[in-house]
Amino acid sequence: MTSAPYRTPAAPPRSWLPTLSVMDRYLARELIMPFLFGVAAFSSIGLAVGTLFELVREVVDQGLPIALAIKVLLLRMPYFLVLSFPMSTLLATLMAYGRLSNDSELVALRSCGISIYRLVMPALVLSACVTALTFAFNEAIVPAANAEAKATLERALGQDEAPSFRDENIFYREYGKVDLPDGSDKTTLTRMFYAERFDGEFMSDITVVDRSQYGIAQIITANRARWEASSSQWEFFDGTIYIVSPDGGYRNVATFAQQTIRLPRTALDLAVRGRFRSDEMNIAQLADQIELLRPSGDRSAIVKLELRLQQKYALPFICFAFGVVGSALGNRRHQRLGRATSFGISVVMIFSYYLFAFVMDALGLKEVLSPVVATWTPIAVVTGVGGLLLMRASR
């Protein structure tokens, strides 16, 4: 009787998805719980200090309904959640690796030949995931929630009677290049626009000074004007056009009942958008607002918005920088980090970072530093310090 030939068992199908080792899963569990604790603790503190106390005062003093107060509180929660993500990442890495170091588990893993860079990989992956989550929250949820919270509170307190646009004293100036007779050009004030009142459709008592052509100046006055979206032009009503010669005399004067004038829409945009705050706009809206203001030459407003735009980009990466620093500090030898110590170190480091960032922001507003340098330098410094600490801990 012949025996059946031996068959090698088929190899399991290879998966293209990365698999997590036992160590990775273990370290992930150690990191997630402190992270969730940090999110709950830091967001609660921020929400209480930044919103809850104010709402309690409005409930007591202004009779704000409790249901609306709770709604505003919930709408403000995403903002404080985003602020808590970087701090929670730092706390999670410090607590997790500090606990493993206290129980000599890091020593055991290192004795098995596992490098410190491999040990901190789960923390860096967590930091990268939190960075992406922070960006998504800060871009898609926080601006809309902040705007709705503000509108809800104003309606409840009867402060929404003012129009959602600037209704008087609308002033806009525009700088641009003017061609000179010798073929060169120079940047100068090319246009000034002033409207005394705006009702949402018509602007009233308008004065426009146009110096966009060398040697020619126009002064346009009108009782009313409105923007025609269909033709992308301004319609002026009951006005006068003065052509001023270089010697200061009137070269021509013409009155009109209705006149189509090609001017930019910027003045209307500024009247409608003037009350928006940077924390109520996403990246695209902030960039659009900067481009809207750029011809006006208002450097202080432009620089401030450019700083806020860079901060929109930079805020998520604080999570990764704190993850690197926390992992490095938690993996230092001969250092025992309890939960209280980890929390204390986190608070000190967070305070130091935001103090440094505040100083850099002030230098950016004063134009001592560019918005990019002022915003990204604190993150680069923290990440660099974390990298150096990791290199020292690996020796």
Describe the structure.
The chain has 10 helices and 6 strands, in the order αααααββββββααααα. The chain is an alpha+beta fold and 395 residues long. Strands 1-2-3-4-5-6 form a 6-stranded antiparallel beta sheet, covered by helices on one side. It is elongated and about 90 Å long. The relative contact order is 0.11. The model has no long low-confidence stretch (mean pLDDT 84).
Summarize the structure.
With 395 residues, the chain is an alpha+beta fold. It has helices spanning 22-62, 66-102, 105-111, 116-119, 121-156, 266-273, 283-293, 299-330, 339-365, 371-393; strands spanning 168-179, 185-198, 203-213, 216-228, 233-244, 250-261. The chain has ten helices and six strands; from the N terminus they run αααααββββββααααα.
